[in-house]
Amino acid sequence: MNNFKEEYDYIEDADILEIFFVQGAATNAVEIADDITLRFDKQRGEAMSLILNNYSYLVEPAQFGPRSFRLKIDQLPKATREIVTQIINHPPVNRCIRMLTFLDQQAIPIVTVEPRQPVSV
Q1: Which residues form the domain of 106?
Q2: Among 59, 65, 79, 108, which has the highest number of CB atoms less than 10 A from its own CB?
Q3: Which residues have C-beta within 8 Å of that of residue 102, sequence separation ≥ 6?
């Protein structure tokens, strides 16, 4: 990973926050949860950016703590799922979202969004 400082692009009218981790084009983009898209370079296993649609809703507290969202990684091909899981669980992405497990009759991966102070552009 290079020394690129995170940059934020917040579109207030649309309530979309994109957090850029690395300059350059992404080779893949997957919606990892409703309203959360990860752009990444699959070959390098490197996050390029995280797009948070409906940002205000994503960071709004729920009744018992942070709002959580079911991950859609089980729908990805195995190789892509492994890369995405690795990216989510390591910096810089894990400073923005946190992957957790909800236990019901089976383990269900979920994610929470860490609030940021976006600046409108």
Answers
A1: 7-113
A2: 59
A3: 68, 70, 108, 109, 110
> Left if phi > 0, otherwise alpha if psi is -120 to 50, otherwise beta: which for 70?
beta
Full-model pTM:
0.88
The residue type at 65: G
Distance CA 48, CA 25 (A): 8
Comparing C-alpha atoms, which of 107, 114, 47 is closest to residue 83?
47
Query: Domain tally for the chain?
Result: 1
Question: Rg for the chain (alpha carbons), in Å?
Answer: 14
Mind listing the pLDDT tens digit for each residue in 51-107? 999 999 999 988 888 899 999 998 899 999 999 999 999 999 999 999 998 888 888
